[in-house]
Structures are given as structure tokens and as C-alpha cells.
Amino acid sequence: MAYGFSIPDRILYGANALDDAASWFATKGTKALIVTDETMVKLGNVSLITTLLEQAGLSSVVFSDVNAEPTDEVVRAGAACYRAHGCGMIVALGGGSPIDTMKAIALCVATDRDIDEFMGEAYSGPVCPLAAIPTTAGTGSEATQFTIITDTARDIKMLLTGSSLLPELAVVDPRFTVTAPPGVTAATGIDALCHAVEAFTSRKAQPLSDTFALSAIKRIWNNLVTCYREPSNLDARTQLSLAATEAGIAFNNASVTIIHGMSRPIGALFHVPHGLSNAMLMEPCLSFALDGAYERFATIARSCGLSDAADDQVAAHDFMAELRQLLEALAIATPQEYGIDCAEYEAAIPKMAADALASGSPGNTIKQVTVEDMEELYRRAYARQ
What we know:
- This protein has 15 helices and eight strands.
- The protein is α/β, with parallel strands linked by helices.
- Strands 1-8-5-4-2-3 form a six-stranded parallel beta sheet, sandwiched between helices.
- Strand 6 (146-151) and strand 7 (156-161) form a beta hairpin.
- It is globular.
């Protein structure tokens, strides 16, 4: 069987990787739109980018209106800014939200269409040059052809895709992640772990995606708690940043499964950050999927040194036991602990389950998933039953 495998044209990673990016920018035009958020501006990180672009001979315009969960309204404003200033490329600086917003803006300016029109359509036409500089070790969006944007009229998170949305350049510089608060470090790190585990246990898994997924899982398991407890540990941050990109490469080629499918509706309806909504669902969703892929989960457990059991079923359950401890160590909140009202949550379950199924991601789970299964999993996740 033949497989296709996609990664960014160029990945620069490791301490001070940004310093090596100037030569790439110098070949990509004369004016860049920098897509970011106000936090990056206040931390002074945006000025590092504008200075680098100046050194490369480019002028720039900063669009810093990105919010935690990007919406179609923000994308429209960003596209208008791009057009108004005559930009020719886009640089995203931040977590998954700015990077996803960058991709959506590029899609709109390339086609002169509204972002809400692309739900369910894979785009492969030309877009302007895209460069992604992640400041969290989590989403892996710098290495994927996916973007998630909230459709504000329908209260759904649109999963948009297309080979053209894969950034040409990914700059994975761990120094940008040091300022992430512990809660953000935990949630984004678990997001990356979800990417890698889901990719490894997906129906679409393939040998190369397995290689990246297992490497990512091991790096995350060995470094996430250290980053959470020691925010300025650059060695651990370097490993975690690399793992997030590896996980992004893995799920870009093998896709995600039930966790992500169920996570997006929680984010859309209750405005829970994407990484945290994944973390809330990880244990119940993987517990459900476990008996459909014992061998795969057992391989993860043995690769990470979490089990020495010869029996796949025993090793898979060892993985789940260690996962519960990891989530507890990172103080991952349940929907109830996050403050979501029980009655509102219960009332939203039918819509969330239907939207999750419609996204297509649950169908990648090796075990068959029904709407009724997901409704029950939402209930179990609410207070970690």
C-alpha cells in the first residue's frame, strides 16, 4: 500500500531558531501581515519579529485582534487588514489561535470568499507564503493543513482543511514558550499528547506517522510535568516544543479521532480553550476506545516505559492508569470544575454529540462510535465519573 506524507517545506527548531529565519523571509516578498494577539505585543515578542523582518528587507503590519478561540469575524477583519495594506505574506506568532487565524485569512484573500463557505471543502489552490512561529508547545498547527474557526452564527467550530494551508516555514523556538503560565503549559501539552495518541490509534495511521507519534508521546511524557513545575527549564521546553511539532506532523498525516471530535463543540458552546477541552475529554474518550486498539495502546505504554506487561490488554490498562496520574499532576479541570453549569451542559449534549459526529473525526477511531456513545461520554466527562 502506498501512502502520502506532508510536512512544512522548512522547519527551524531549537534554541534561538528564529535567528536563522531571516534568509527565508528575504525571498518571500516585501510586506508581511503579522497575525498575533495582544499578549504577544505586550511581552515584546512581536517586536522581535518586526526587527527580524526589517533585517530581511520586509516591512510589516501587525494584526493583534486574535482571541483565544478564533472566530469568522476575526478572520474577516484580518483579511480586510491584509488587503488594505497590500501585504504579500503572513506570519503567525502565538499559540494555535493565531496560526489557525493566519491560515483562514490566507484562504479568504486567495479566493475572495467568506470563511464560512469552506466547511467540508478541502482547498488546494494557491495561497500567499505562510510562516508559523508557535509560542506554546501544544497545537502543532505549525505543521498541519488544518484550521479550526468558530462559525458565530451556527455556534460550531469549523474544521477546515487543504494542502495549501500547510505553512511553508515553521519556526519552533522554545524561548517563546517560557512565558506560558502553568495552566496553559498543561493544557497545550495535553493537546499535543492527544494529537500523538489519536494519530497512533487512528484508522488512518501509517508507518511514518507512527514514528512521529511515538517520538512525540515519549518526549511529552518525559518533559511536560517538568515544564509545568519549572517554567524556565529550557531543556525541557525544547523537548516539549519539538514534541508538539512531531505530534502535529503525525496527526496531519493520520488525523485525530474521538477526543478532538467531541472537544470542538465544548469549545464552541462554552468557550473553553481548545487544549483544555481536549484534556477534559482525554480520559473518558480513550477509556472508551481502549478495547478497540489494545495492541496500539500497549505499544505506547511499553515505548514510554509505563508497562512491562506482555499481555496487550494489561499494558493498555497500565497506560490508562498512568494517564490518570498525569492529568491529576497537571490539575486538569473537569467541565464542572471549570464552571460550566450542569443544566446548560446537559441540555447541550445532543447538539454537541451531533456536531462531533458531523466533524468526521470520531469516525477515525478504530472502534465504532455512535452519537449515543458520545452523549454518554460527555456525561461521564462532566465531573470525571
